């Protein structure tokens, strides 16, 4: 089987998407599945990998994040698809890449299984965040009808739609009538493990705040982008600065200045920047008392799964892919974008028995967390069996405006 992934957000210095696709290439090599990746980049070039390849197509850079480029011309991508003749072609964003794959025609296209793997929710990640101070989330969803129409129309051009979280599958069904296959992403449970808990490391991290070992240490992991909502989280944690509660945050991004300002205002938050050493990251997670997250727009919720795999309880927004890892036995939820509600959730969790929470979280890692191998086995099996067709009914709506279609 030959899978071609038209990956709009794969880049040499990329984050989660690059990590995921690199793992797919490696698993394909181990199992005899060839994986080719077509990605936009600064120049046309081919990077050979064991069992596959990454083919970069020259494309414009994204101004707000110059690590990434965006597909522009369809012809080079279509030519590659015709030449590669894949058994499965996967589009991993709902934007230009998906549009190109959806409209790919010809003999090779007719022989290929087209899969749309939903990696992004631009309405939740951008529009709901930008307007959360004055508009309800459901109001924004209704106002975004043009996007849901585009997505529904695009999805009907694919043979299957894949999602990585139950929450996201329910969301696209509710908003766009799209039926999807759930294939949860996996976590390296040998790397992220409760046995990595280090009491001396925890003592050192608390000492950075001048706090004793009896204090409580929260951890947050994620890029410094607006959809991650770190200022909301920091404000919530800052309300507890006189209660022996502190937080460390791991990550960076183009919103660094805003995030640093919010951390300084909180008074009990320290930013560690990017931790590229995965073993160190695993030790930090396992040595913390709870993970807190702010994004309502996670489509996979992988960061919460990593926290749970490390054996720590969770404090999460009540919307988003992270909720797939949540359960009352080891987590507390709060209204997204609401610092006061997040503070209450922190209080509720820290007032519970910490030993029992940890026992519950450690038990959950066995029942609620998949491994990367389990994820790719499930995904490749779906592709071999040609997955479940998209059952989206044609909505009785007006055509999408030409400008919207062009921008997709």
TrEMBL record:
Molecular functions per Gene Ontology: glycosyltransferase activity
Keywords, ordered alphabetically: Transferase
Gene3D superfamilies associated with the record: Glycogen Phosphorylase B
UniProt xrefs under Pfam families: Glyco_transf_4, Glycos_transf_1
Domain Glycosyltransferase subfamily 4-like N-terminal: 15-190
Residue span(s) of domain Glycosyl transferase family: 208-359
Record's keyword annotation contains Transferase: yes
Protein name: Glycosyltransferase family 1 protein
Provenance organism: Sandaracinobacter neustonicus
């Amino acid at each position: 089987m030959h899978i071609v992934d038209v990956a709009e957000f794969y880049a040499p210095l990329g984050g989660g998407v690059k990590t995921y696709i690199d793992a797919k290439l490696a698993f394909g090599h181990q199992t005899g599945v060839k994986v080719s990746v077509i990605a936009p980049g600064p120049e046309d070039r081919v990077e050979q990998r064991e069992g596959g390849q990454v083919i970069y197509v020259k494309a414009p850079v994204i101004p707000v994040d110059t690590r990434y480029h965006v597909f522009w011309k369809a012809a080079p991508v279509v030519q590659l698809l015709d030449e590669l003749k894949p058994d499965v072609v996967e589009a991993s964003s709902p934007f230009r890449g998906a549009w190109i794959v959806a409209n790919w025609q010809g003999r090779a296209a007719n022989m290929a299984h087209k899969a749309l793997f939903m990696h992004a929710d631009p309405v939740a990640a951008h529009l709901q965040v930008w307007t959360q101070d004055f508009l309800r989330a459901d109001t924004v969803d209704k106002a975004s009808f043009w996007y849901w129409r585009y997505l529904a129309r695009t999805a009907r051009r694919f043979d299957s739609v894949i999602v990585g979280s139950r929450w996201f599958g329910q969301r696209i069904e509710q908003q766009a009538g799209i039926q999807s296959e759930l294939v949860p992403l996996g976590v390296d449970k040998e790397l992220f493990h409760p046995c990595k808990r280090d009491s001396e490391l925890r003592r050192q991290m608390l000492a950075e705040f001048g706090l004793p070992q009896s204090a409580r240490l929260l951890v947050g992991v994620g890029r410094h982008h607006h959809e991650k909502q770190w200022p909301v989280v920091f404000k919530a944690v800052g309300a507890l600065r006189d209660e022996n509660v502190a937080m460390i945050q791991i990550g960076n991004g183009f919103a660094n200045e805003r995030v640093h300002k919010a951390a300084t205002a909180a008074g009990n938050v320290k930013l560690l920047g990017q931790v590229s050493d995965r073993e160190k990251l695993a030790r930090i997670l396992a040595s913390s008392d709870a993970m807190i997250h702010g994004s309502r727009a996670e489509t996979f919720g992988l960061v919460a799964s990593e926290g749970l795999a490390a054996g720590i309880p969770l404090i999460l927004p009540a919307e988003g892919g992270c909720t797939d890892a949540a359960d009352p036995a080891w987590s507390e939820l709060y209204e997204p974008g609401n610092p006061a509600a997040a503070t209450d959730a922190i209080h509720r969790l820290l007032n519970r028995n910490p030993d029992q929470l940890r026992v519950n979280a450690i038990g959950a890692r066995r029942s609620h967390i998949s491994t990367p191998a389990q994820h790719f086995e499930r995904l490749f099996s779906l592709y071999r069996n040609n997955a479940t067709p998209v059952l989206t009914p044609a909505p009785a709506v007006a055509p999408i405006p030409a400008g919207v279609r062009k921008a997709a």
